[in-house]
Design goal:
Layout (H helix, E strand, L loop, with lengths): L11 H7 L7 E3 L2 E4 L2 E2 H8 L3 E5 H18 L3 E6 L6 H9 L3 E5 L1 H9 L7 E4 L5 H10 L3 E4 L2 H10 L4 E8 L21 E2 L3 H9 L4 E7 L10 H10 L7 E3 L17 H15 L5 E4 L3 H4 L3 E13 L2 E6 L8 H5 L6 E2 L7 E6 L8 E8 L7 E5 L20 E5 L2 E6 L4 H6 L3
Parallel strand pairs: 4-20, 5-6, 5-13, 6-7, 7-8, 8-9, 9-10, 9-11, 11-12, 12-13, 15-17
Antiparallel strand pairs: 1-2, 2-3, 4-14, 14-15, 14-19, 16-19, 17-18, 20-21
Helix pairs in contact: 3-10, 9-10
The chain binds ligand LLP.
Ligand LLP binds next to helix 11 and helix 12.
């Protein structure tokens, strides 16, 4: 017998902890069960660290986004921001769910095409797109290229042989409450054109023979936990004139920890589309580009505890991963929660650290765990977005695999790197 909200034998604390895990997570005598698969079985089968994605939860979110937007604004499309988890299998899920895909550069483009995403549904981004990347996108028939700067316009005009749809990225002068490194809507941003400069490039594109100006793009940042800045960004676009397409970007935050209360997809769409109704032409096409809010909460990283030691009054639980597979903590100060997979919930407070050679390699600074021991599986929820994206080989770490779990079955969709991979590029 297992149930999500009231895990058998578990305290209220444990129940609220389980709430942070993907929707299909339960607790039974095996401990934590993700999409019907015991976390300990997954760890045994695929080794650790491993990123587990609850595939049904992911599809549910893709559908919630697509139907939620279509219900509010019929002429619309959800374009998944693939930088959040660039893995061919995830692109494939998005294509199967009928979503478009945002690719930032040649690498993401290659993965999207490999997954069979319809090129006309691709949106190419980048503040420093190279000639090569533009040529790749043009050759592939990418539907939309977002113009970030005047050099983009010159390059595209030179490289395009047929008509190419473009959007102009606008920096609306909106600074949401988020980490400075992931705030992009402020006036002095490296992205896009300020409101005062946008009219010039709009005029320039309207006169272009090859480039067809479809509309405007705006993206103000990431991990935004309120709706109001999104509304202000939409409103800022109105004075620039009327266009056929508005891409309103991504940015909705995820719930990493008990104290986060991000708007739901429905609340976010109400606010965003509400603003669009107020100020944008009713016939326009609306695009949105969710990344983190699509996928973060569908992922769990499983680690193995390698050492538990007390030093200077702190008890450190060291795991077999860290900065190599999760840079959110050291780059943005993101707080995560965790549990021992077989003893859900809290006890004493521990500092969870990684295996890398610096003190900054802390996964969680102070988390209540129940009696963690060497060999235990430690599960960290909400790691679906941007963790694997920025995984690296620090200290020769091998980048983890991605495992899809669904209805009691699991399959690896991306293998773990091997030591051979580490020397494979040597010349
Ligand atoms: N559209 C554009 C043009 C973007 O640049 C981004 C994210 C998104 C959409 C999706 O935003 P989201 O819905 O995921 O917030 N490396 C950072 C995240 C950087 C986000 C970059 N752009 C991290 O690890 O937190």
């Amino acid at each position: 017998m297992s149930s999500r909200a009231a895990a058998e034998g578990a305290s209220d604390d444990a129940a609220s902890l389980v709430e942070l895990f993907p929707r299909g997570t339960t607790v039974d005598e095996r401990g934590l069960v993700i999409a019907g698969c015991a976390a300990t079985d997954l760890a045994r089968t695929y080794a650790t660290p491993t990123l587990v994605i609850d595939e049904s939860a992911l599809r549910q979110r893709a559908r919630a986004y697509a139907s939620g937007l279509a219900r509010r604004w019929a002429n619309s499309r959800v374009v998944w921001a693939s930088k959040s988890l660039p893995c061919t299998a995830v692109y494939r899920v998005m294509a199967e769910e009928g979503l478009g895909v945002d690719v930032a550069g040649g690498g993401e483009l290659v993965m999207a095409l490999a997954a069979g995403v319809e090129p006309s549904r691709l949106v190419l981004h980048g503040n420093a797109k190279t000639d090569t990347e533009m040529a790749m996108a043009l050759a592939a028939g990418v539907g939309t290229i977002v113009v970030d700067n005047a050099d983009d316009v010159e390059r595209l005009e030179r490289l395009a042989t047929g008509e190419q749809g473009v959007l102009v990225r606008v920096t609306p002068g909106v600074r949401p409450a988020t980490h400075a490194a992931i705030s992009t809507g402020q006036a002095a941003s490296k992205f896009g054109f300020g409101l005062a400069d946008a009219p010039r490039v709009i005029e320039r594109l309207r006169a272009s023979r090859r480039l067809r100006l479809d509309g405007l793009h705006v993206h103000i940042g990431s991990q935004i936990l309120e709706t109001e800045p999104f509304e202000r960004a939409v409103e800022a676009l109105a004075p620039l004139g009327e266009f056929g397409t508005y891409d309103l970007g991504g940015g909705l935050g995820a719930r990493y920890t008990y104290d986060d209360h991000p708007p739901t997809i429905e609340e976010y769409l109400d606010a965003l589309v509400g603003a669009a109704r107020r100020v944008l032409p009713p016939t326009a096409q609306l695009l949105i580009e969710p990344g983190r809010s699509m996928i973060a909460e569908t992922g769990v990283t499983l680690y193995t505890v390698v050492s538990v030691k007390e030093n200077g009054g702190t008890t450190f639980v060291a795991v077999d991963g860290g900065m190599g597979d999760n840079l959110e903590v050291s780059l943005y100060g993101q707080r995560f929660e965790a549990t021992v997979a077989t003893r859900i919930g809290g006890g004493a407070t521990y500092t969870v650290v990684g295996r890398h050679c610096e003190s900054g390699d802390q996964l969680i600074d102070g988390v209540a765990l129940r009696d963690p021991k060497v060999g235990d599986v430690l599960a960290v929820p909400v790691t679906g977005a941007y963790c694997l994206t920025m995984a690296n080989n620090y200290n020769g770490a091998l980048r983890p695999p991605i495992v899809f779990a669904s209805e009691g079955a699991s399959r690896a969709v991306l293998r773990r790197e091997t030591y051979d991979d580490l020397v494979a590029r040597d010349l």
